[in-house]
Amino acid sequence: MRSGALKLLKQGEEIGLPIDRQRDADVRSLQETTLYGIRGAAAYADYAAILGQEDDEVYASLQEKLSKITDKNLTLQDWVALALDTGKTNLKAMELLDAGNTSHFGHPEPSLVSLGHKAGKAILVSGHDLKDLAILLKQTEGKDINIYTHGEMLLSHAYYPELKKYSHLAGHFGTAWQNQKKELPEFPGPILFTTNCIQEPAAGYENNVFTTGLVAWPGVTHLENDNFGPLIEHAIEMPGLANEEASGGVWVGYARNTVLQDHPMGRVIDTLVDYVKAGTIKHFFLVGGCDGAKPGRNHYSDFVDKAPQDTVILTLACGKFRFFDHDLGAIDGVPRLIDVGQCNDAYSAVVVASALSDALGKEISDLPSVWLSGGRVMQMTGAAYYGSALFWLRLVVEFGLGLAVLGVFRKIPIWLPVLLLAGEILGRIMFFTHVVHSAVNIGNLY
Ligand code: SF4
């Protein structure tokens, strides 16, 4: 392991949460959950503050949670309450960040993003930080350098008018955080990491990497005070993209305002409600999250590809890069794959879910929507098997075969129960293979 990674590991050990191994496993798990929640909310609150949105309640809540994080007197119930309250603070922090982004850059609108490229000098920008991207776009205006987005920066193509107005915001390159070492050496220009999950830069592109804001890596040039001059000079020295290439595109920008606002053709939410009431749309699935790096974790894409035609998939965060370019078609004009945005845009999904619950007169928990957990995917795998043609065909064949043999032989031959038992075992092996396959992909059994 290289020295940069070793330094980070050592730092992690020094500042990690001191775990009391004697404590109940559920308490330790809630302690960690709360700490992750605090970290997430703090990151969102920090970026919201950069964009001028602050709330003392959020800071007070985070301080209170931090002061309790090693409290040995809290009971299991206290920890459950603390973890849930951290979730509430997280939602508030995301609301602040949403206000910061939309007040600075406008509201996202549905936009087609090119996955191809133009010929010419190029810079790749990764991460979540729209303000850094906006400043770089301004600083590169008229310099014949195209800017491409990577990872969670994909959504920036939808921000109207402040980001979309730049014609040199040219397209999107690459996928999720875990593919950096595979994809980034192919990019013939410098790469700027704003706030996001940087991987140790590999030989082949390490000299082209720049960082800014809260993200950094030992040995990598860190740019301060919004001065992207060194990055721009590096782009001019590098070869850039030799030819223009069209590689299709993806739609982004279905955030809360797109769904809830008035359009000349009517509000999207009214159409969704009509379709739900008419049974045209049976379920909404939210497939969100950051995803893992293990090879073969294809449960996200398998699930999305196999979801029935009367369902709509909402997605956000890096997990979507498993399927973001799949064509799932539409239900009477409503796209079946709806990209809500970055991980922090979970706030948008919550706002849309609340609006749907008001319009349908149902609690959010009673909506025809599923926030997928590993256990839930496995339960659905089981339910799907019991409703499948394979299950019923097996029953009919076994029953029919038994009756036919009885009709011919007028007695039960010794091999009949053995044959039926073998059929039953084979059917169950097929079912459990599917469940275990899901479990391995998800990482855990329930
Ligand atoms: S969505 Fe998650 S994994 Fe992807 S860059 Fe953001 S925080 Fe990192």
Radius of gyration: 26 Å
User: What's the domain count?
Assistant: 4
Q: H/E order of the elements? A: HHHHEEHEEHEEEHEHHEHEEEEHEHHH
Low-confidence stretches: 442-446
What share of residues are in beta strands? 5-15%
CATH topology of the largest domain: Rossmann fold
If you average the pLDDT, what whole number results? Answer: 87
Total count of helical runs of at least 4 residues: 14
Strand arrangement, major sheet: 4-3-2-5-6-7
Number of strands: 14
CATH class bucket of the largest domain: Alpha Beta
How far apart, in Å, are the first and last alpha carbons? 33 Å
Task: Bin the helical content.
Answer: 40-55%
Structural class: alpha/beta
List the ligand species. iron/sulfur cluster
Query: How is the main sheet built?
Result: 6 strands, parallel
Structure description:
This protein is an alpha/beta fold. It has four domains: 3-105, Substrate Binding Domain Of Dnak, Chain:A, Domain 2 (Up-down Bundle); 111-237, Rossmann fold, CATH 3.40.50; 254-372, Rossmann fold; 384-442. The chain has 14 helices and 14 strands. A hairpin with a 2-residue loop joins strand 11 (330-331) and strand 12 (334-335). The longest helix has 30 residues, at 76-105. Mean pLDDT is 87; it is low at 442-446. The structure holds iron/sulfur cluster (SF4). The site of iron/sulfur cluster has 10 residues, from loops.
